[in-house]
Design brief:
The complex is a heterotrimer of chains A (320), B (299) and C (256).
Chain A (H helix, E strand, L loop, with lengths): L10 H14 L5 H25 L8 H18 L4 H23 L4 H21 L9 E2 L19 H22 L2 H18 L4 H27 L1 E2 L7 H14 L5 H20 L4 H15 L4 H12 L1
Antiparallel strand pairs in A: 1-2
Helix pairs in contact in A: 1-6, 2-6, 2-7, 2-8, 2-9, 2-10, 3-4, 3-5, 3-8, 4-8, 7-8, 9-10
Chain B lengths: L1 H31 L6 H22 L6 H29 L4 H23 L15 E4 L2 E4 H23 L1 H11 L1 H6 L4 H23 L9 H16 L4 H21 L4 H15 L14
Antiparallel strand pairs in B: 1-2
Chain C lengths: L3 E12 L2 E7 L2 E3 L3 E6 L5 H8 L7 E6 L2 E2 L5 H7 L1 E3 L12 H11 L14 H13 L15 H13 L5 E5 L7 H18 L2 E5 L3 H7 L2 E6 L2 E6 L1 H6 L1 H8 L10
Classes of the chains: A mainly alpha (320), B mainly alpha (299), C alpha/beta (256).
The complex binds adenosine-5'-triphosphate and magnesium ion.
């Protein structure tokens, strides 16, 4: 597991990564740009799970907030005619934040499998609602139009992934990752370690463990929602099965565990690996894709408990 | 009046089914503290194997009779033992002692692997084994005709439930098992072979999971993804009653059975919703379930 | 008699059939060092649990500085200035001694920890180091605490309880698990450190020599009730106390 020392601001690293992605745009083939953007969206969800993992918590229902983000954007687009990606993102975050705030009063006292299961139950309730409500598109979901930014609309020939959308996703992901990085280095982040290591002692230090968990839960929800908005804008479609169903939540947990909790970059790296491998696996060995996931997960649990990022740490340790 | 009778009978039948497909899950958790996501795979494998076996047999002999039931039973035991040993000896024993949630993730990994293994073995097509369902004709209850097989599930499952309960509370190994549940360290200090109890418990749970699948094979069309749906339902059942409690699983099955049947009658679109709302309410208010005891930590 | 810092009135707590506290009325004046004795299961830890808000008493009231704090949460009792150490040290097992203190100092007292400023700041690091020095555990700074010897764990546990400068500290068996030779050393250091901070101390202890040496006053518990309360001499020579607490060989400390 991570120790306190792994928490260090990587402002420069994040800025550099974002700049590199933006600079590479002209060179990236369409599929690569799409994969990168989708990985950022999914990575945000895994980043939220990573915060929870720092607190010693795993949610098997993060698809709930992913779906809330995606549906908030889709509904705002469909029924209110909003196309601005900034407004849609804020809508998704606000919706998820409000719901997580309310649900937080229930989950903040739960730990371990009870936390995991309660969130699973929440997400399955939403799945049940979405899949059976005709007004919300039932199992077919919705389509979403091509988004704009501050009045800048893409030309008709531009396709879905414009430089504007790409840039928006890259820059907001970087900003958010930077914020999370700071938060993990703040007393809240350390309180998370306290919850994970020994909640009793934390309480006797005058910290409200439940309050800290509540805060982390809301943050993770907002991240998942933003990831949901990005994904919907990129894919152009949202369905309950691809967002709220428990298998989707399981995928996010997989990515978070694969990346490890060592650094805010880890979930994004893991999500990129996940997307790339999926693309190739679905093409060449479609019947073995889940098997691949399962075996990888087992290997990580048994041999790499710190996830992919612990490899980076190991390399660094050797060089230092 | 007729609607009421129908709801009661349907609920009972459905609850019996829920109980048999979830009891293995709660048994394993109660003894080993392992929340076994791969239970869904065991169910699916049991169903596939039974359906395949029945299909093979029916192809050859026309009036198959009770041989069909024997085939289903054997299928369940074979699947349960083979896959159970594989999971427990091959995976779980490497993660015993780690965080509860890590163990859940390990079983989730197994679940993912088995999903594809099934697709590789059985292919994407559906298997249908309706024949055993018509072995017992139809029975009329309060003027409504029911399939005999469905109704027989109720006493059969009640028997299995009572059997498990008696095995735990009325036999010597059962009493030792309670000691293991109570405190592993003390139990092993007393000379009880805890590892053996774990293996045996896991095998029993696995067989029960596969048996649930085998018994369901005549009721459903066996297709990829049935395990995915089953496991969340089974979670709901065992969580409501209290993870690890046999009586709890029975109550959970009855509650979910009643709720879902009522929903199907009055507001079909609420079917899934009802189940998880009950699960949420119980988890939120009494995470240890209706039958579990709240634990306070002594310091 | 000076005004009481802590006062309990008729505290009672039962667990099923076990009476862990019954009509416990004691009062502790500011600056006192009170020793608490009693056989295993006498209700000493339960008393600490109730005073610090970990358990809510079934009956009775707790007053701190004259304010009723009955039913407070642990966080509120801590904020009011009552801290404690534990019979079994409560540390952050995966972190080093220094990290344990860094975390403790950095998060202390934030009901809602701020999320915008970094925890590791020079003044926090300095304070963590100072505490390590004060409790003589700086040699183990870089050791993960789950690999520490019991004596150091006990000291760290007390050091973490002292973070934030409590007005009153309850020590639950500070010397359990420490060899007889070292007990006086450790306890001497702790008492010195606590005295210099001006905290009022209540310590639970099975070793009567330690109690006799450091306590200004002794309270003896038996089966949840106060059996005797007075100067060390009065209490340790009280026939009932000798029969039920002291007379037997000191009970084995229970830190299983
Ligand atoms: N949370 C609890 N649930 C049930 N019983 C409890 C609980 N906490 C304490 N008890 C019981 O209350 C009684 C008093 O326990 P307590 O821990 O206060 O004793 P103690 O004086 O600290 O003993 P020791 O010297 O062994 O630490 C004991 O019989 C104990 O078993
Ligand atoms: Mg005690």
């Amino acid at each position: 597991m991570t120790t306190l020392r792994n928490i260090r601001p990587t402002t420069a690293g994040i800025a550099l990564a974002a700049a590199a992605l933006l600079g590479l745009w002209p060179l990236l083939p369409a599929w690569a740009a799409h994969t990168a953007a989708v990985s950022l969206g999914g990575g945000l969800v895994a980043l939220g799970l990573m915060i929870l993992i720092r607190f010693g918590l795993v949610s098997f229902g993060q698809g709930l907030f992913f779906a809330i983000g995606g549906y908030a954007a889709a509904l705002a687009n469909q029924f209110l005619g909003i196309t601005d990606m900034l407004v849609l993102s804020v809508a998704g975050i606000a919706a998820a934040g409000t719901i997580a705030w309310a649900l937080g009063y229930i989950v903040r006292g739960h730990r371990g499998i009870f936390f995991a299961m309660l969130n699973l139950a929440f997400s399955m309730i939403l799945f049940g609602i979405l899949a059976k409500t005709v007004a919300l598109g039932s199992t077919d979901g919705f389509s979403v139009g091509v988004p704009t930014l501050l009045g800048v609309a893409p030309g008709p020939e531009a396709g879905r992934l414009t430089f504007v959308l790409f840039g928006f996703i890259v820059i907001s992901s970087a900003l958010v990752a930077w914020m999370v990085d700071r938060i993990l280095a703040s007393p809240v982040g350390y309180a998370g370690q306290g919850v994970r290591e020994n909640e009793l002692r934390l309480r006797y230090l005058g910290v409200s463990a439940r309050g800290a968990v509540h805060l982390a839960y809301i943050m993770a929800a907002k991240l998942a929602a933003l990831g949901g908005v990005f994904t919907v804008l990129l894919i152009g479609h949202v369905t309950p099965e691809d967002t709220a169903y428990w298998t989707k939540s399981g995928e996010f947990v997989f990515v978070a565990i694969l990346g490890g909790a060592g650094n805010v970059a880890a979930p994004f790296i893991a999500q990129t690996v996940f997307e790339l491998v999926r693309t190739f696996a679905l093409q060449y060995v479609p019947e073995a894709w889940q098997m691949l996931l399962g075996i990888t997960l087992l290997l990580v649990i048994l041999f790499l408990p710190g996830g992919l990022w612990s490899l980076v740490d190991r390399l660094r340790g050797r060089n230092a | 009046m007729m609607a009421l009778a129908a709801i009661v009978v349907d609920s009972l039948v459905y609850a019996s089914w829920l109980f048999i497909v979830s009891i293995g899950l709660t048994l394993i958790f109660g003894v080993m503290n392992v929340l076994n996501v791969a239970h869904g795979s065991l169910y699916a494998l049991g169903a596939y194997t039974a359906a395949w076996g029945v299909g093979m047999y029916v192809g050859g002999a026309p009036d198959a009779g009770y041989v069909l039931l024997a085939i289903m039973l054997v299928a369940a035991i074979v699947v349960g033992v083979l896959v159970g040993i594989l999971i427990e000896r091959g995976v779980l024993r490497w993660v015993y002692g780690r965080d509860e949630i890590v163990i859940v993730l390990a079983t989730y990994a197994v679940f993912l692997v088995l999903e594809d293994v099934m697709k590789l073995i059985f292919g994407p097509e559906s298997y249908i084994a309706f024949q055993p369902r018509f072995l017992f004709g139809t029975v009329s209850v309060a003027g409504i005709p029911y399939v005999g097989y469905d109704l027989l599930l109720v006493p059969l499952v009640a028997l299995i439930g009572v059997g498990i309960w008696a095995a735990i509370h009325r036999t010597r190994p059962g009493k030792l098992l309670i000691a293991v549940i109570h405190d592993r360290e003390i139990a092993s200090a007393l000379g009880i072979n805890v590892a053996r109890f774990f293996t045996v418990t896991f095998l029993c749970g696995a067989i029960l999971g596969a048996l649930g699948g085998a018994l369901s094979a005549p009721l459903i069309s066996v297709v990829p993804g049935i395990g995915v749906e089953l496991i969340v339902l089974a979670f709901a059942v065992v969580v409501i009653g209290g993870l690890g409690s046999v009586e709890g699983a029975a109550i959970g099955a009855l509650l979910v059975g009643l709720g879902r049947t009522a929903a199907v009658f009055f507001r079909p679109e609420l079917e899934l919703f009802v189940v998880f709302v009950v699960m949420t309410v119980v988890l939120a208010v009494r995470p240890e379930g209706l039958f579990g005891k709240p634990q306070t930590r002594r310091i | 008699m000076p005004e009481a810092l802590l006062e309990t009135r008729g505290l009672g707590k039962t667990f099923g059939a076990v009476v862990a506290a019954e009509d416990v009325s004691v009062s502790v004046a500011a600056g006192e060092i009170v020793g608490v004795i009693g056989a295993n299961g006498a209700g000493k830890t339960t008393f600490c649990n109730m005073v610090t808000g970990y358990l809510t008493p079934d009956r009775g009231r707790i007053l701190f500085r004259g304010t009723d704090i009955t039913g407070c949460t642990v966080g509120e009792a801590t904020a009011a200035g009552i801290h404690r150490s534990f019979q079994i040290p409560q540390l952050f097992p995966g972190l080093t001694v220094y990290e344990n203190l860094l975390l403790s100092v950095g998060v202390f007292g934030h009901r809602r920890p701020p999320w915008w400023k970094p925890l590791v700041r020079p003044e926090i690091q300095q304070e963590a180091r100072r505490v390590m020095e004060q409790y003589h555990i700086a040699d183990s700074a870089e050791t993960r605490v789950d690999r520490l010897p019991q004596g150091v764990r006990k000291l760290l546990d007390i050091a973490m309880a002292m973070v934030g400068g409590p007005a009153m500290i309850l020590l639950d068996e500070p010397t359990s698990g420490i060899s007889t030779e070292e007990k006086f050393d450790v306890m001497g250091n702790v008492i010195d450190a606590l005295r210099s901070s001006g905290a009022t101390v209540l310590f639970v202890e099975h070793d009567m020599d330690v109690v006799g040496r450091y306590a200004d006053r002794v309270i003896a518990f038996r089966e949840g009730r106060v059996l005797a309360d007075g100067t060390p001499r009065e209490v340790l020579e009280n026939p009932a106390v000798i029969e039920h607490v002291v007379g037997r060989r000191p009970p084995r400390p229970t830190d299983a």
